[in-house]
Automatic annotation (TrEMBL):
Source species, domain of life: Bacteria
UniProt name for this protein: Tryptophan-rich sensory protein
Gene Ontology BP term (one): tetrapyrrole metabolic process
Compartment list: Membrane
Native source organism of the sequence: Ruficoccus amylovorans
Listed GO CC annotations: membrane
Spans traversing the lipid bilayer: 7-24, 44-66, 75-94, 100-120, 127-149
Family per record: Belongs to the TspO/BZRP family.
Main subcellular location: membrane
Keyword Cytoplasm: no
Alphabetic keyword roster: Membrane, Transmembrane, Transmembrane helix
Length: 151
């Protein structure tokens, strides 16, 4: 596969960046003391789910950047990666769940726009973002519940 280095680079940036940020901003005492909803998953679920999502995000990014003419999808992909990488330090590092909730709103909207931007010319990238849309929508609900339970 002649484009393997590009795919590898995109996956390395997304997965490596996500793991690095997750390691640097681990949940701590503040998070442990928060009231959480009954549907809050156990902590061990997040790393494997996000690892898989980052791989899918990286593959979709490589596909979009290799295909000419998908300027809006490229801009959305970069913006979403920035928002995604901002959420963890905002929530766990700065302890700002309300601001983090706003970030998830932007992420869900951006993911849906990315899916729409790719649908006509790069449908596999749209499908690669479907799990990201579902998980981020769940994250929005979870983050919102935490904000509600911890005024």
């Amino acid at each position: 596969m002649r484009n393997f280095p590009i795919y590898f680079a995109f996956v390395a940036v997304t997965l490596g960046g996500g793991l690095l940020i997750g390691y640097a901003c681990r949940p701590g005492e503040w998070y442990d003391q928060l009231e959480k909803p009954s549907f809050n998953p156990p902590g061990w679920v997040f790393a494997p789910v996000w690892s898989l999502l980052y791989i899918l995000i990286g593959v979709a990014g490589a596909r979009v950047f290799l295909r000419p003419g998908l300027t809006a999808a490229r801009a959305l992909w970069v913006g979403l990666l920035i928002l995604n990488f901002l959420w963890t330090p905002t929530f766990f590092g700065l302890n700002w769940p309300g601001v983090s909730l706003g970030i998830t709103v932007l992420m869900v909207a951006g993911i849906l726009l990315f899916i729409a931007a790719c649908w006509g010319r790069e449908r596999p990238s749209s499908w690669l973002f479907a799990p990201y849309a579902l998980w981020t929508s769940f994250a929005f609900v979870l983050n919102g519940a935490i904000v509600h339970l911890n005024p």
